[in-house]
């Protein structure tokens, strides 16, 4: 979720960390390339390549490039083009050679070209990788980590890049999550022995049915034994650090704005957004083209209804290929509060249904007690509601004033707030996730388990499966479709299949939905003989009469 609070910048663009001194400008470009430097007396000639000598920086860090100068300079946001007041435009063009014996060999070419103080039409620069991953969420980072683990196991060098639109890893994820560690146990089995942000086990689990003035306690349909109440933003920051330790290059602050195709409609990477665009769409004086990140494999992990993922699904008709149904959505509104210590119960988990929503509207609320006196509270409203005047934000305000909820929040302070959409289509709405040149992973494909209200563990597992398929494509020449085959044979498929009728059951109303769900969950144990279908697409469900 988006948050309006600024967070720690400790993970901000770690592979492009800028350090400035009085005499030199140091830019860390890559984690694992030989150090290349330009001496302080180097003169950059106009239009001719510069001979570079390999050396190790005085700081002992490899991959540091030193640009010594005495004049002022400006650095564009994308970190690739630098323009000095002397009139020299320095382009660092990074090329990867895939024809050599060692895949992903990095070559650097630096050219000095004459320009004005601002390049009005700079060339679009390109960086090539073995794998490009869009989105530094649980799915994308799990894929990156798994790829690098396989590289170490097989003694193979593959270059992996993760591009993230947030200013830092975790910037677009608001805190608060009941985390099932199943996928993490597989990905990083030693996580319990490390200083991870997963430290608050679920201590108690409640399920209430709310009326306007009462809270009726029901048997909890969610089994949260062994799960943890966590800050998801802290988790992905921790995973980002793990990925970088393995050699993954993460670039926060870059929004992927377009898919790159070759002449055969094969996806070959993504392009980042242009900079310096005026409100009317015209190019301002500081206009700068985005950067092309090209990959032999592209993995899309943008989250629910990612713009590039939706374009790919439509272009390659991925829903039609598996005859999957349309996706259904919900809007989740969340706040993180700091409450009085006497009211704080670390590990307490509460879910509700009923009020303030009417019986024709599917949805519910949650409250999770994290550490440090913090509580995450939110309301999820299905977007197929019939009443065009229903306002999810106003319903959330009503919820916080319920007699059973208000006392927990009184005297507290809101720390964060945000909203995001959720995939609720489940098993019936999963598209074919493989396209020419890559795959869709995580919530972009819709792996949320609706009755559990959990998608982090399934997103992580899908990223791991896609990483294994991508590695086999690049290293052994297999087909990316093995991702789809392995997905159907994984615990993701079994879990989502058993939960497939939960969400469409509520198309018949609140009471019938609860009855059908109870029969399937408690009696049939997910083995309902029929698969229910979703109703109308969300945008067609509104009753305007």
Automatic annotation (TrEMBL):
GO cellular component: mitochondrial inner membrane
Top EC category: oxidoreductase
GO molecular function: 4 iron, 4 sulfur cluster binding; electron-transferring-flavoprotein dehydrogenase activity; metal ion binding
Domain ETF-QO/FixC ubiquinone-binding residue range list: 329-422
Annotated stretches, region: Disordered: 34-57
Keyword Metal-binding among UniProt keywords: yes
Compositional bias of kind Low complexity: 34-45
Cofactor binding mode and count: Binds 1 [4Fe-4S] cluster.
Entry cofactors: [4Fe-4S] cluster; FAD
The enzyme's E.C. designation: 1.5.5.1
Catalyzed chemical reaction(s): a ubiquinone + reduced [electron-transfer flavoprotein] = a ubiquinol + oxidized [electron-transfer flavoprotein] + H(+)
Function, as annotated: Accepts electrons from ETF and reduces ubiquinone.
Protein name as it appears in the record: Electron transfer flavoprotein-ubiquinone oxidoreductase
Taxonomic source organism: Cannabis sativa
GN (gene name): LOC115722915
């Amino acid at each position: 979720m988006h948050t309006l609070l600024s967070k720690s910048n400790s993970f901000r663009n770690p592979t492009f960390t800028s350090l400035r001194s009085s005499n030199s400008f140091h830019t860390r470009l890559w984690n694992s390339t030989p150090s290349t430097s330009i001496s302080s007396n180097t003169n950059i000639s106009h239009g001719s390549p510069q001979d570079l000598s390999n050396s190790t920086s005085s700081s002992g860090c490899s991959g540091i490039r030193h640009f010594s100068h005495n004049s002022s300079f400006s650095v564009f946001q994308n970190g690739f083009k630098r323009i000095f007041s002397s009139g020299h435009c320095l382009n660092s063009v990074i090329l990867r050679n895939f024809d050599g014996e060692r895949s992903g060999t990095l070559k650097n070419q630096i050219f000095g070209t004459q320009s004005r103080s601002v390049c009005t039409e700079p060339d679009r620069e390109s960086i090539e990788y073995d794998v490009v991953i869009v989105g530094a969420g649980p799915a994308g980072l799990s894929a990156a980590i798994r790829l690098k683990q396989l590289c170490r196991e097989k003694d193979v060098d593959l270059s992996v890049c993760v591009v993230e639109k947030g200013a830092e890893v975790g910037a677009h994820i608001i805190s608060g999550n009941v985390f099932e560690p199943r996928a993490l146990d597989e990905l990083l089995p030693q996580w319990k022995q490390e200083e991870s942000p997963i430290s608050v086990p679920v201590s108690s689990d409640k399920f209430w049915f709310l009326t306007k003035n009462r809270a009726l306690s029901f048997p909890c349909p969610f089994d949260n034994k062994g799960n943890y109440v966590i800050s998801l933003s802290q988790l992905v920051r921790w995973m980002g650090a793990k990925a970088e330790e393995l050699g993954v290059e993460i670039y926060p602050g870059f929004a992927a704005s377009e898919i790159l195709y070759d002449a055969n409609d094969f996806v070959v990477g993504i392009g980042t957004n242009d900079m310096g665009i005026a409100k009317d769409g015209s190019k301002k004086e500081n206009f700068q083209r985005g950067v092309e990140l090209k990959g032999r494999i592209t993995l899309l992990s943008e989250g629910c209804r990612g713009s590039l993922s939706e374009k790919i699904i439509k272009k390659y008709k991925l829903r039609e290929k598996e005859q999957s149904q349309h996706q259904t959505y919900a809007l989740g509104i969340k706040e993180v509060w700091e409450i009085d210590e006497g009211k704080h119960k670390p590990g307490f988990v509460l879910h509700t249904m009923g009020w303030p929503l009417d019986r024709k509207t599917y949805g519910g609320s949650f409250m999770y007690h994290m550490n440090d006196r913090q509580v995450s509270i939110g309301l999820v409203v299905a977007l197929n509601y019939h009443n065009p005047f229903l306002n999810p934000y106003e319903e959330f305000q009503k919820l916080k004033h319920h007699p059973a909820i208000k006392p927990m929040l009184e005297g507290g302070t809101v720390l964060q707030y945000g909203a995001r959409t959720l995939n609720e289509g489940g098993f019936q709405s999963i598209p074919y996730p493989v396209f020419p040149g890559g795959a869709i992973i995580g919530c972009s494909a819709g792996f949320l388990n609706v009755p559990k209200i959990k998608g982090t563990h399934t997103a992580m597992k899908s990223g791991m499966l896609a990483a294994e398929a991508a590695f086999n494509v690049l290293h052994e020449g297999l087909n990316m479709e093995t991702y789809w085959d392995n997905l159907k044979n994984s615990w993701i498929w079994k879990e989502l299949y058993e939960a497939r009728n939960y969400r469409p059951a509520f198309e018949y109303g609140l009471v019938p939905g609860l009855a059908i769900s109870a029969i399937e969950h408690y009696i049939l144990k997910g083995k309902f003989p029929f698969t229910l279908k979703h109703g109308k697409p969300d945008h067609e469900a509104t009753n305007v009469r």
